[in-house]
């Protein structure tokens, strides 16, 4: 979901390259599908290796932290050495992580696999987003926004199906993903490079995260929307399947992964449907849907109704996509082009820390309070943050004036 850096030097295409855009979008879906594939297996890992919910959320957080560090360090590397070399290196790294998943026989190996996967995903995210923009300046940004969300949802669903109905539940999904990535790696050789290499690759590895002064006020008004939406995403990817199985009483990975499938996929549809709405309207719709969705989800937990729980998840998914998109579109135009990359880094620091740290807190809380009481408190916090963002957007009297420097060359 990371937009490309605005500092790269790319070759101008006489016309959009639909085939190239499709290739990069499918590759992005594959990477994010791989990132969510372990989620339906977490219950099996817990049963086999006997670790707590706290350790489960730590495994998830290790992936997020590794992704965040890799994204901050390598975010603009492809602007200097080209898209294809960065993508190729990330494919190799992802295949290596899948190999570790395949052979993992303990919690330590599972965590190592997640860290390697986080690094590969963080490295490739900005390069693929930039490559999609290079391929089609109109459709590229939209594909860069929805492909990761669809990937996360589809990966969890396919993994859930394979774990439930196919043999070798702890191995097959990783082997299939590795084969797909090998094929996609071979096809990369047929893709045209869109960047002219230029000096500064080593200097570009210095992490940059900065919030320009004109952006700080508007960001404070929407930050609670960002935190609430990503906190919900972190919870669904770590403890969501366990929650569904607990509520339903059915220990079935396919049933458990439905919450992981619904939230990002509905979020992607939300982004696609609401992309033309003004940012303030998107934030209002998103936070409103988060409030309603979390309320319905918690009612489903209280009534022990999976149908109600998943209905709330779907409604919250609308809010997840709309609130995130609205918040991003609120702050990004306010920064000059020369500072957008650093602002994007700071924005994603907030996003990923919200997903990982709050999910870890939730995991620790389950050890002391139990899963269902923790869910009530966690859901209440998400709803309260969404309400704060909704009131902030509702009472906003005027849209902040666009930064004049944004319209000048970097």
TrEMBL record:
Its main location: membrane. InterPro entries: MFS, MFS_trans_sf, MFS_Transporters. Pfam families: MFS_1 (PF07690). The chain crosses the membrane at residues 21-37, 49-73, 85-104, 110-133, 145-166, 172-189, 250-274, 281-303, 309-331, 343-364, 376-394. The keyword Amino-acid biosynthesis does not apply. It is found in: Cell membrane. It is a multi-pass membrane protein. The keyword NADP does not apply. Keywords: Cell membrane, Membrane, Transmembrane, Transmembrane helix, Transport. It comes from the Bacteria. This is MFS transporter.
